[in-house]
Amino acid sequence: xxxxxxxxxxxxxxxxxxxxxxxxxxxxxxxxxxxxxxxxxxxxxxxxxxxxxxxxxxxxxxxxxxxxxxxxxxxxxxxxxxxxxxxxxxxxxxxxxxxxxxxxxxxxxxxxxxxxxxxxxxxxxxxxxxxxxxxxxxxxxxxxxxxxxxxxxxxxxxxxxxxxxxxxxxxxxxxxxxxxxxxxxxxxxxxxxxxxxxxxxxxxxxxxxxxxxxxxxxxxxxxxxxxxxxxxxxxxxxxxxxxxxxxxxxxxxxxxxxxxxxxxxxxxxxxxxxxxxxxxxxxxxxxxxxxxxxxxxxxxxxxxxxxxxxxxxxxxx
Amino acid sequence: xxxxxxxxxxxxxxxxxxxxxxxxxxxxxxxxxxxxxxxxxxxxxxxxxxxxxxxxxxxxxxxxxxxxxxxxxxxxxxxxxxxxxxxxxxxxxxxxxxxxxxxxxxxxxxxxxxxxxxxxxxxxxxxxxxxxxxxxxxxxxxxxxxxxxxxxxxxxxxxxxxxxxxxxxxxxxxxxxxxxxxxxxxxxxxxxxxxxxxxxxxxxxxxxxxxxxxxxxxxxxxxxxxxxxxxxxxxxxxxxxxxxxxxxxxxxxxxxxxxxxxxxxxxxxxxxxxxxxxxxx
Lengths: 317, 281
Prior knowledge:
- The complex is a heterodimer of chains A (317) and B (281).
- By secondary structure, chain A is α/β, with parallel strands linked by helices.
- Chain A has 2 domains: 10-173, Rossmann fold (3-Layer(aba) Sandwich), CATH 3.40.50; 189-315, Rossmann fold (3-Layer(aba) Sandwich), CATH 3.40.50.
- Helix content of chain A is 38%, strand content 20%.
- Chain A contains 12 helices and 14 strands.
- The model of chain A has no long low-confidence stretch (mean pLDDT 98).
- Helix content of chain B is 38%, strand content 11%.
- The model of chain B has no long low-confidence stretch (mean pLDDT 97).
- Chain B has 10 helices and 7 strands.
- Chain B has one domain: Thiamin diphosphate (ThDP)-binding fold, Pyr/PP domains (Rossmann fold), CATH 3.40.50.970.
- In chain B, the strands form 2 sheets. Chain B has a 5-stranded parallel beta sheet with strand order 1-2-3-7-6, with helices on both faces. A two-stranded antiparallel ribbon of chain B has the order 4-5.
- The longest helix of chain B is centred in the first third of the chain and has 22 residues, at 4-25.
- At the A-B interface, helix 3 and helix 5 of A face helix 5 and helix 6 of B.
- Chain A: Its cofactor is thiamine diphosphate.
């Protein structure tokens, strides 16, 4: 099996910040808006390099989304930055009407998604944002897995015409995808080849899926591990091809099972190739305070939970 | 300056267009539309510097954003009669597969519309964004926005109003249609707005009144004064005092016609008060 090495733990939000810095230098139409979280979103360098293209909107997210929509008229490419909770639930109608329905080229960049925000607790730990965003017609939804991929995705979405939701997180996690990767929106990345089970993972759960695959391999179970960084549009072909081979699937995400990647995969399989599926996701619940590791363990979002789900789903074949 | 008589005729024709659009589909919002006929006619035919062809990016021209999207009948009429799309298309208002949706949208590609509106309170934010892009592009043109008075009850407006003043967005003229009415009754009864002028001033805007918001000459001269106020470090707010349902006696001074279409008899009566000028579509 392929070997993946953590080149040093890094936060995905820094991938966003560094991607934005690079974009600022190469694309003069890129502008950035932030709702009083410049440091948390790692937007300081863009702000320092291009103060005329950085817009501090204060604690006023609804206005930020509306402004971003307006700024596209005349050719700017606005990147908004705040926590995932305030990027989605708080401003849903603004995104729906002024961005998605209006077809505006806004990039909604959301940090601190999911449980791994940690100690701040459930008010800030949104586990519903993927669902909220994927339900919007014409919205592209991306959830990256590590620093390198987040940086590559940040740069790539500037060249894509249309509204995008880019989701990333706070903690330092394994950085294992290539620094020079060619990020293709909507294209799944096959990380491991196997025949017994398909593991489809997104975001922070991708590294956990790789760890799970190693453990399973030691027990003679081989897994296809697919990194789905783009939840919408979903790479149907890649998932179908794999499940047709393995006959079962485990989906893994740091999100409620309602509205998440797992549901998208279930819809695909139920209409085109029914197969047993197990969900690694939160179970219709709010989060709580704790360290990221404690929370991912308590809510069953880690490699050992994936291994258990694989054993369960294989038994259902 | 355009021929004033021609503009007066256009106002009357726009009223007919509004009434006939909502009557045909027995739905839509005639009250606020009628109240803003003079404003729209003045804006699109006298005040705005507009390019001949519609481009979404609107480079080197003034732009207009309608925040209170429910008054789409007046917007569509004035856009059509300004040449953005065929006047006959007003026949498709609110019909299936039409570009003239109940509330304006970019989604169906109707020329003249740059943002979807309908869910209230979002237009000032969008306008600020467009104004900032004008500045980044070194484009000296102005952003015009219209919002309703009842709409100011939406909190997002005040985020935007705070931002625009705090960041000297001075290429922006926000006009508030002060007709004192909303769906459930007068604004005073539903949720009092207090002193709107003092509120905008307290936020740091340059505020002026157009007391006779249904007097075409007063609107034209007032909006010209507003334009002169731009570029001075403050966003500009115009309080346009209008009468909901203006031009049709039984629709005036009441919220009853906010979102109700006239029946056949009422249409006939209303049209008789506004005889054909430029020709019906």
